[in-house]
Design goal:
There is one protein chain. This protein has 18 helices and 17 strands. The chain is an alpha+beta fold. The strands form four sheets. Strands 5, 8, 9, 10, 12, 15 and 17 form a seven-stranded mixed sheet that branches. The protein has a four-stranded mixed sheet with strand order 1-2-3-4, with no helix packed on it. The radius of gyration is 24 Å and the shape is globular.
């Protein structure tokens, strides 16, 4: 790619990911903690942690300040780092001519192991031909093999005689999407085989994939549901009334293949290795209207097959709107920025067992993919000493006012409650790192957990009609930043989700 054509630096691009890794390596070789480096650069420790792991917000001004903090101030050196994408495409060496430059590259290779996964469907002109990418963009909504397409980042900076390389391991899953016809696929394979010397590709045998995480309802069920009209729901306090639960179940179980689909959904959420599911209802939404009450009642019926729907907010209806407000805190659910990993209602003694999000409209500018991470798996990667710190009752976050169905306020609370993995909650929200007064040791343990969550994350873009259900005992969730320019989008056209919470039935171990 000619240097004059390279895109603005963002950590959603391969160059941005490599730059983030390089910054982490620079900091570590300077023996600076996150907080020390962040304070010098005018950032918070959490902001720097996020930038070092591929999060959004790494603009050129921030990058220059961080490089200055680490002593990389030469004009040519700074320009080389900001043009990483161009350097990698042409095979040029990364210019770091200061003392210890080679050691920093070695450290960069070590640090890059923290960038383990980058989920993407297409990366035009780098991994795919323009023809393949154009077809892939059109096929995102009707993927024949549901699930994100991971591209594993391994050894981003191996030192070699002819300079650093980018090594991409292509999951065989991506090869099983024969889109665009034989000519497009043949061109794609030929492109991989003729990759430039700085781009090494190899095929990873397809692993056993939990494809049921993305559930496409059978066409027979879809057609029957279009003609199925459920009555308006009734509430008993904050919960869906038992009479409504029974009425919905009676009507839906009489529909062909509904019980089979509901069983698949429950297994995806609570079976071995599960913890979240996306029910793809896009065709149903198109047929009925995504904002039609009939559609919302059918989605509520699916939710009720998992657990009891309820609203903890008396001032809101059963389903709560999450729109986009450009004047809100960017990190909030209705903001435009990065919404870090968290569990909902973390400070209640009885948090919802499941949190769910129905996509009415995705970001029309193409941003805001959902992110999820296996919380018990992240905890298991921590040291024993950090797990012990997280089990101490010293953490707190948020206010607790006028909430129903979630117990009493829990303040302070432990992040880990001593339960077996997947049974208790991992009471964590990354925002507590900025908004809670924590001692250095406890803050450090929580920050390490945040880092492990980012390392293990999966991401995917919700489309209109997609219904995401998250088992809060197993997975934490968040959202990448929306695309810039939200203020130019009419309010009625901005991203819109509806949120619904679920409580496991008494004596039901479905959440665990």
């Amino acid at each position: 790619m000619p240097s004059s054509d390279f895109p603005p630096l963002t950590t959603s691009s391969p160059g941005g990911l490599v730059t983030a890794t390089y910054l982490s390596a620079l900091r570590r070789t300077r023996d600076l903690s996150l907080d020390q480096a962040a304070n010098t650069a005018g950032l918070s420790g959490f902001e720097l942690h996020r930038l070092e792991h591929g999060g959004p917000g790494l603009d050129r001004d921030t990058l220059t300040r961080l490089l200055g903090t680490y002593g990389v101030t030469g004009r040519r050196d700074v320009e080389a780092v900001t043009r990483l994408l161009d350097a990698l495409a042409t095979g040029d060496m990364l210019r770091d001519s200061g003392p210890g430059g080679r050691d920093r590259l070695v450290a960069c290779e070590q640090a890059s192991r923290g960038v383990r996964m980058w989920a993407a469907v297409w990366i035009p002109d780098l991994i795919q031909t323009p023809q393949y990418a154009a077809v892939a963009a059109e096929r995102v909504l009707i993927d024949t093999e549901p699930g994100p397409v991971p591209l594993a980042r391994r050894r981003l900076f191996p030192l070699a005689p002819d300079g650093p390389r980018v090594v991409l391991l292509i999951d065989e899953f991506v090869l099983r999407r024969p889109i665009g016809g034989a000519a497009v696929m043949a061109g794609q394979f030929a492109y991989w085989l003729a990759s430039p010397r700085t781009l090494t590709t190899s095929r990873e045998p397809q692993k056993r994939r939990k494809s049921h995480m993305f559930i496409v309802i059978p066409s027979e069920l879809e057609a029957a549901l279009i003609d199925r009209s459920l009555p308006p729901w009734e509430l008993d306090g904050p919960f869906l009334a038992q009479s409504t639960l029974e009425e919905y179940r009676t009507a839906l179980t009489a529909t062909p293949r509904f019980e089979e689909t509901a069983a698949t959904l429950r297994h995806a959420l609570t079976g071995e290795g599960g913890g979240y599911a996306v029910l793809r209802l896009g065709n149903l939404a198109k047929a009925l209207g995504v904002d039609d009450d009939r559609f919302l009642r059918l989605v509520t019926g699916f939710a009720a097959e998992v657990a009891v729907p309820f609203s903890p907010f008396p001032r809101w209806p059963l389903w709560k709107d999450i729109g986009v407000k450009v004047d809100k805190d960017p990190g909030k659910s209705s903001g435009t920025g990065y919404n870090a990993f968290h569990m909902d209602l973390v400070n209640g003694t009885l948090p919802p067992d499941f949190t769910t999000l129905l996509c009415i409209r995705p970001d029309p500018l193409g941003g805001g993919p959902s992110i999820l991470s296996d919380a018990p798996a992240a905890v298991a990667r921590l040291s024993e000493s950090n797990r012990a710190l997280l089990a101490e009752t010293v953490y707190n976050y948020g206010t607790f006012f006028d909430l129903h169905g979630v117990g009493e306020e829990y303040k302070p609370f432990p992040i880990l409650d001593g339960s077996d993995p997947g049974e208790g909650f991992v009471r964590f929200t990354a925002k507590m790192l900025e908004r809670s007064q924590l001692g250095q040791a406890h803050a450090g343990a929580a920050r390490e957990l945040a880092e492990e969550l980012v390392r293990g994350q999966v991401s995917f873009m919700l489309q209109s009609g997609d219904y995401l259900i998250v088992n809060q005992r197993r997975f934490l969730h968040g959202r990448e930043a929306l695309h810039s320019g939200q203020e130019t989008v009419a309010v009625a056209d901005r991203r819109l989700l509806l949120q619904l919470f679920l409580r496991a039935r008494a004596g039901d171990d479905s959440a665990t």
